[in-house]
Specification:
alpha+beta, 3 helices, 21% helix, 3-stranded antiparallel β-sheet, 2 domains, globular, 256 residues
Amino acid sequence: MSKKKKSQDVSARRRRAQERGRIPWSYVIPAVIILLVIVGVLYVSAKENTSSTGSVLPPPGNYKFPYSCLTTETLAYHVHPWLRIIIDGKNVTIPPGVGMEGAFVDGTASNGVPFYAASTCYEPLHTHDDTGIIHIESPTNTNYTLGNFFQVWAATYAYELFNGSQRPIVFNNTDVLGFTANSSHQVLLIVDGRQEPTSFNYDSLVLDTLDYCNSTNSASLSSPCYASAQGNPSWNIGNGYPYGTGHTIVIEYVSA
């Protein structure tokens, strides 16, 4: 073999070795771009389906609401009860978008709480955020009960996410979210700091007379009213609300 031929073979082997060690950027760069797009879409989807506490919202329910859907909010009758649920000392997050079909984030309050709105359907009982403030917005002075709210909630979401588990959305004198009264635990309903007797049918509690929010207690950033329920209640198309404000409703599952 001539020196020239031998030199050409060595050069060819070097080129092949270099090509084997070379990163195929023409394939890598598009793959990286596609991966980043997928990650971005997943991140946005997760953000859109989270509450202000950062927890992922449950999947939708069957939307078999107990009341006819309203295409827009009716503010002639507008009351804001405040509901808290406490299980063995832990607060349950009542999710935003209860009583809404096609709920979406329609802005964020200055205290950082996302405000949800409905694209197609509002029930007269609904939630705009996860503070526990229930919005009763109805064209008529109908008596809405605590049991009605749980009906709307159960139609909106398939289950409640609490403490890492999926809980049924139920409530009565002996059961709240699947936590049932037994020899060691009891379900309590506490209204304005007063425990309701067990002889009272808990889910028949009328919410209309139990407004919490007013122009004073809604002014603070830390108020549950601040994000979506500032101001005084509206009653009978702007007439004064006759039942006072600042009422509280607490459901507790506690040791007996």
